[in-house]
Write a structure and sequence with these properties.
Layout: H1 5-8, H2 14-34, H3 39-48, E1 58-61, H4 67-74, E2 80-84, H5 87-94, E3 101-104, E4 118-121, H6 133-141, E5 147-153, H7 154-157, H8 160-170, E6 175-186, E7 191-200
Helix pairs in contact: 2-5, 3-4
């Protein structure tokens, strides 16, 4: 079996990212499960602790094969929509039956709807995946008091542009940091992640 984790954290453009995840879709869950993928459940639990109603619609941005949506469902979220670059990943997500709606998107485009009061971007931003611009896109899309849960793995944390992107929102008071915790991401390969929850001011 190809070890896609070895390739996942290398910088690439959007087309190459889509191709990698299309190719990885069939074996993705087995590979991350083998390494104890912990971030989706950590993000879902962190978000649940800071939202008023888990029945409100939530967007799972960069949903991949749906492991993040499954974690959100298990945490009690009831109306989950997902978007992703990769059609093959979306096919795997659709099979889980946890999403209300799934759509394929292009890199850098806006969101399909503008009424989400909570958005999740679990394992989405970082080297080999989406740029920090995605954080700004998602925060701008939220209404006042909307919540964003996201994670930076250790590779993403090593790039000051990513933590600097968070500071752009929090330092000026445009957002409030509700939660920040460093912990397991893929313990099987010794990789951790920090989970954040931001609230738009």
């Amino acid at each position: 079996m190809t070890n896609f984790l070895d390739k996942a954290y290398q910088a690439r453009d959007a087309a190459s990212t889509r191709a990698l995840y299309d190719d990885w879709a069939a074996s993705y869950e087995a590979e991350v499960a083998e390494n104890g993928y912990a971030t989706p459940a950590r993000c879902a639990d962190a978000l649940k602790a800071h939202v008023g109603d888990v029945g409100d619609p939530i967007l799972d941005f960069g949903c991949g094969t749906g492991l993040s949506g499954l974690a959100l469902k298990l945490a009690g979220f009831a109306a989950i929509d997902g978007v992703d670059l990769s059609a093959e990943m979306l096919a795997e997500a659709r099979a889980k039956g946890v999403y209300r709606d799934l759509q394929q998107i292009e890199a850098g485009t806006g969101l399909p709807r503008s009424d989400y009061t909570a958005i999740a971007a679990i394992g989405v931003i970082g080297a080999g995946a989406a740029p920090i611009d995605v954080l700004h896109l998602l925060m701008r899309a939220l209404p006042r008091h909307g919540k964003l849960v996201f994670s930076f793995n250790d590779h993403a944390l090593a790039d000051p542009a990513n933590t600097g992107g968070v500071a752009e929102w929090t330092d000026c008071g445009a957002a409030r940091l509700l939660f920040k915790e460093h912990g397991d991401h893929l313990p099987g390969i010794g990789l951790n992640s920090t989970v954040y929850v931001l609230e738009k001011a």
